[in-house]
From TrEMBL:
Biological function: Catalyzes the oxidation of 5,10-methylenetetrahydrofolate to 5,10-methenyltetrahydrofolate and then the hydrolysis of 5,10-methenyltetrahydrofolate to 10-formyltetrahydrofolate.
Keyword NADP: yes
Positions annotated to bind NADP(+): G165, R166, S167
Example of a GO biological process term: tetrahydrofolate interconversion
Protein name: Bifunctional protein FolD
Domain Tetrahydrofolate dehydrogenase/cyclohydrolase NAD(P)-binding: 139-281
GO MF terms held by the record: methenyltetrahydrofolate cyclohydrolase activity; methylenetetrahydrofolate dehydrogenase (NADP+) activity
Pathway named in the protein's UniProt entry: One-carbon metabolism; tetrahydrofolate interconversion
InterPro entries: Aminoacid_DH-like_N_sf, NAD(P)-bd_dom_sf, THF_DH/CycHdrlase, THF_DH/CycHdrlase_cat_dom, THF_DH/CycHdrlase_CS, THF_DH/CycHdrlase_NAD-bd_dom
EC number in record: 1.5.1.5, 3.5.4.9
Source species, domain of life: Bacteria
Keywords (A to Z) from UniProt: Amino-acid biosynthesis, Histidine biosynthesis, Hydrolase, Methionine biosynthesis, Multifunctional enzyme, NADP, One-carbon metabolism, Oxidoreductase, Purine biosynthesis
Reactions this protein catalyses: (6R)-5,10-methylene-5,6,7,8-tetrahydrofolate + NADP(+) = (6R)-5,10-methenyltetrahydrofolate + NADPH; (6R)-5,10-methenyltetrahydrofolate + H2O = (6R)-10-formyltetrahydrofolate + H(+)
Length: 286
């Protein structure tokens, strides 16, 4: 293997230390960031993520509330809870853990969260702000990808970035963020002809398609930065990304592992957004 590994856990720990320090200073001014996390149902992976979010809040000195609702909760009950949290003064960020049970319309729930408290960056106004370059709360995983690049000294500016995948949660927003960082961006998807050939043109290759080990060594330009946003559970229970790590690392200059790459950044960027929302709510600039 020739590639250098981008250690998402280490970078995430560094950012958390910065947030911890800033939170302590904020508390001396009487401001404590507050996050509400809402979980509907008993999805085992979601339960772990929600627990980790509450732990991160405790560790950084945030106030937090976790609302665990039964799977049968109706959409109007959930919207009622969001309405209460929107009006709650000690809550700066509201996160509804996804996926939601099938009988609840995800869009209606996201739309109901007040934009100022939209720490997931999924609200249509936050998405619009991202498009026009306004300073809104950014979606956590895409923001984490940009932080990983910057903090490893791999600035996107002037580079050709190829994004594989066009989801609303990762592919589209990460493309906009790379563009904002002055990369030339190519967005690709399942109907792109000769995907390996397009991927091979990338200085920065971001993969978020949900297909285990799709990207092989011959998809990667020698020396390129490969960012794997995929998280796939194999039949043996192990996690793997959308990139065949061992193979692609033979060609890449830098590469993120799964686990331990982009994943740890998601919750850290959520904490960063909550801190930012708390400062804004209290008229404190970053
Ligand atoms: N409202 C939201 N729901 C969901 C989001 C989100 O950003 N907002 N993202 C995912 C789940 N998620 C956070 O909620 C999340 C996923 C993965 C990780 C992570 O740290 N992954 C580790 C591996 C963890 C493991 O071993 O299972 C890694 O990749 O190293 C954190 C958060 C869907 N829902």
């Amino acid at each position: 293997m020739s590639a250098q590994i981008i250690d998402g856990k280490k970078i995430s720990d560094e950012i958390r230390e910065e947030i911890r320090r800033e939170t302590a200073a904020l508390k001396e001014r009487g401001v404590q960031p507050g996050l509400a996390v809402v979980l509907v149902g008993e999805d085992p992976a979601s339960q772990v993520y929600v627990r980790n979010k509450a732990k991160a809040c405790e560790d950084l000195g945030f106030y937090s509330e976790v609302h665990r609702l039964p799977a049968e909760t109706s959409q109007s009950e959930l919207l009622g809870m969001i309405d209460r949290l929107n009006r709650q003064g000690n809550i700066n960020g509201i996160l509804v853990q996804l996926p939601l049970p099938k009988h609840i319309e995800e869009k209606a729930v996201i739309d109901a969260i007040s934009v100022e408290k939209d720490v997931d960056g999924f609200h249509p106004v936050s998405v619009g702000n991202l498009m026009i370059g306004d300073d809104s709360l950014l979606p956590c995983t895409p923001a984490g990808v940009i932080e990983l690049l910057k903090r490893t000294g791999q600035s996107p500016s002037g580079k050709h970035a190829v994004v594989i995948g066009r989801s609303n949660i990762v592919g589209k927003p990460v493309s906009m963020l790379l563009l904002r960082e002055n990369a030339t961006v190519t967005m690709t998807h399942s109907r792109t002809p000769d995907l390996p050939k397009v991927a091979r043109q990338a200085d920065i290759l971001v993969v978020a398609v949900g297909v285990a080990k799709l990207v092989k060594r011959d998809w990667v330009k020698p020396g390129a930065v490969v960012i794997d946003v995929g998280m796939n559970r194999l039949p043996d229970g192990k996690l793997c990304g959308d990139v065949d790590f061992g193979d692609a690392a033979e060609a890449a200059g830098w590469i993120t592992p799964v686990p331990g790459g982009v994943g740890p950044m998601t919750i850290t960027m959520l904490m960063s957004n909550t801190l930012k929302a708390a400062k804004r709510a209290n008229g404190i600039d970053r």
